[in-house]
Amino acid sequence: MSGDLDQATMDRLFAKARTYSKFTKAPVSDDLLRQAWDLARMGPTSVNCQPMRVVFVRSSAAKERLKPALAPGNLDKTMAAPVTAIIAHDMEFYEQLPKLFPHADARAWFVGNEAMIQSTAFRNGTLQGAYFILALRAIGLDCGPMSGFDNAKLDEAFFKGTTLRSNFLVNIGHGDAAGLYPRGPRLDFDEACRVE
Amino acid sequence: MSGDLDQATMDRLFAKARTYSKFTKAPVSDDLLRQAWDLARMGPTSVNCQPMRVVFVRSSAAKERLKPALAPGNLDKTMAAPVTAIIAHDMEFYEQLPKLFPHADARAWFVGNEAMIQSTAFRNGTLQGAYFILALRAIGLDCGPMSGFDNAKLDEAFFKGTTLRSNFLVNIGHGDAAGLYPRGPRLDFDEACRVE
């Protein structure tokens, strides 16, 4: 692959995209969520393990179940968002490996190795969460990712008796710029990187 | 923001991008690495904490220091790649918060809370790693991310006596399609998601 993307695209995905706290009343269809999924799922994961699982919280009843787990600062904006995605991962993701990575018995590399299961699920589920954030932006949606909530409480409400564990939340909609603060500063290359 | 990106862009970032094991001899300039950084750093992190730190391993001497930490299957391709990025995170990322998030004393939320430091550094450093993978693709580079290496050995070789810890590696260059396997299957929306 060669050549670079145009500036408008760079701006939409990175430079001018913002974390929104407020969204317009415009609904977010299931079809748009599926479009974002179909892009995000193509991003790379270790041995193609794809541990991310997502619950899209849309109904009032489901929002009420989410409510007690939220940090106070995230409560009102999450209740008002058109959809809130619970980005989770399946701690038994390796059961899918015979299908997802048929070249080797990759399942055997994980079974019984709790530390490797934990780090692989968390790392790769988070990578997929980031692909999903950018995929939402790519199809014209805006989002507000958050980690300010009680994971154990949320897991009890949504994933009890399953092998799914919550990672972070993403409010999704069409952003209302009226709710934006000035953009926070970013670290320069020379503050965060070195070339050896 | 509204409207969606054109198909060619979607393809470049997601649908047709591949994980490369082989790269052409074309060099990767520091300027390109800086361009990718300048895009990736704009992605969202919790309280704007930006814990990711990157070492770009380019010289033969630095590649030799990396070598003993690599899993056998990742050895030759990494030695041959134009550049290998060590995606790491700073376990004292919170010391930057007075500058990066001046609205509140966010530093105080982390100091002494080892579990929250660990999960925040790992989660947000990984999100930033994913933004970086897509930023590399956005500027026309290809990459091969890997977690098959000994983190402790790598940290000893590159981060001894510091608060930096390795997360994963990314080989970077111009991909050689001759090294590609058929693409692995992906989970469908209905296999991995639900709407409530």
UniProtKB/TrEMBL annotation, chains A, B:
Span of domain Nitroreductase: 18-158
GO molecular function: oxidoreductase activity
Coiled coil residues, start to end: none
Family recorded in the similarity comment: Belongs to the nitroreductase family. HadB/RutE subfamily.
Enzyme Commission identifier(s): 1.-.-.-
Protein name as annotated: Putative NADH dehydrogenase/NAD(P)H nitroreductase CCC_01095
Cofactor(s) needed for function: FMN
Keywords, alphabetical: Flavoprotein, FMN, NAD, NADP, Oxidoreductase
UniProt xrefs under NCBIfam families: PRK05365.1
Domain of life: Bacteria
